[in-house]
Inverse folding.
């Protein structure tokens, strides 16, 4: 450029960031966020930080804070392909708050982060509406969030989302391996479907089979896309009611996410016990067998990747099985005894069947999944 030439004027909008679109997105999501609140929330949407009155926590004998953060993985690719964005936020909440309740903690508040190539206000508002609905169901306050526009890094229709939540539990009430003992029963809580794990495998299988998302699948009773976009079940409020229920003693909980049933159960067991889980106690929903069949996926790989119809596990003493099952079934969560906890020193172990011991850095107990699922 010569000294006489004037430099081209470059604005933030010309660089690809639309501040006005971001403001419009905030306006569109306000009604949803207002529903996802609690009495302890101070201030409103738009502050630099979300504020939560912790007076009740201060009155606890020994409050322990619990925190979790997560995303929804490549399930966002399905939402983008179908241009349906009002459920993916629901998935996000389930993946975050249901990790917190595992230790017996009550999730209190949550924040979200959405990164996108271009802010489309209606799309952002739809995503947040799903987050807010799930927070309302989980009795969690949505107290803040951030939407970031990343032109040049993400395509105009690309986005990803993540969230974090904080909860609290009395130290004396923390659930965990030290409570689990031989004689306990392992309860399975039904999932709503794939939830938000294993979508890299699922998408690869669907692509390999040449199935379109609008394909009607008789076994599902709906389209493939509808099945794949089914929201993650949010268990936390129901499980907190279980924790507090009279006549129910709860020893441990496990959220069945990445790693599958055996590995996640092993994480909440002490090293002196062995859990024996029997496949004959349940039939996984059709989506799991369909993925396995279409991709000729080996059963061990399928079970390490997907929840196989079990979204959560509760470990209870035998005399609490009926009360726990009744409470959860009354809340619409199919619950059944899927296994037992045994003394590791004397537990029978089936030869040639994998034994899982601990996972994700946790040196826990051992788990063996045996038998076969009944035919549908």
């Amino acid at each position: 450029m010569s000294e006489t030439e004037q430099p081209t004027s470059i604005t933030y909008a010309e660089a690809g960031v639309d501040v006005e679109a971001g403001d419009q997105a905030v306006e569109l999501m306000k009604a949803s966020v207002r529903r996802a609140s609690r009495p302890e929330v101070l201030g409103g949407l738009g502050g630099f930080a979300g504020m939560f009155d912790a007076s009740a926590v201060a009155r606890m004998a020994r409050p322990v804070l619990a925190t979790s953060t997560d995303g929804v993985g490549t399930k966002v690719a399905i939402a983008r392909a179908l241009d349906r964005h009002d459920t993916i936020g629901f998935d996000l909440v389930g993946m975050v708050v249901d990790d917190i309740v595992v230790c017996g903690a009550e999730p209190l508040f949550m924040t979200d982060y959405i990164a996108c190539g271009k802010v489309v206000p209606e799309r952002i508002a739809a995503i947040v509406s799903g987050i807010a609905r799930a927070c309302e169901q989980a009795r969690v306050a949505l107290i803040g969030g951030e939407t970031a526009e990343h032109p040049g890094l993400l395509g105009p229709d690309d986005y990803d989302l993540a969230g974090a939540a904080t909860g609290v539990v009395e130290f004396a009430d923390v659930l965990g391996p030290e409570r689990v003992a031989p004689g306990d029963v392992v309860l399975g809580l039904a999932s709503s479907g794939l939830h938000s794990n294993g979508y890299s495998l699922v998408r690869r299988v669907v692509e390999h089979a040449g199935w379109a998302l609008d394909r009607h699948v008789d076994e599902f009773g709906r389209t493939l896309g509808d099945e794949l976009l089914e929201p993650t079940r949010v268990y936390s409020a129901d499980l907190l009611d279980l924790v507090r229920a009279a006549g129910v003693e709860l020893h441990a909980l496990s959220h069945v996410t990445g790693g599958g049933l055996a590995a996640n159960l092993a994480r909440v067991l002490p090293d002196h016990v062995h859990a024996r889980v029997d496949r004959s106690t349940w039939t996984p929903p059709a989506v799991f067998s369909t993925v396995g069949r279409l991709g000729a996926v080996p059963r061990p790989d399928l079970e390490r990747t997907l929840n196989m119809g079990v979204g959560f596990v509760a470990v209870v003493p035998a005399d609490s099985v009926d009360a726990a099952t009744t409470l959860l079934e009354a809340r619409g969560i199919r619950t059944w005894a899927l296994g037992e906890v045994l003394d590791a020193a004397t537990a029978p172990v089936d030869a040639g069947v994998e034994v899982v011991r601990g996972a994700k850095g946790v040196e826990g107990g051992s788990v063996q999944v045996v038998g076969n699922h009944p035919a549908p």
User: Anything to note?
Assistant: The two ends are 73 Å apart (CA to CA). The longest strand covers residues 159-170.
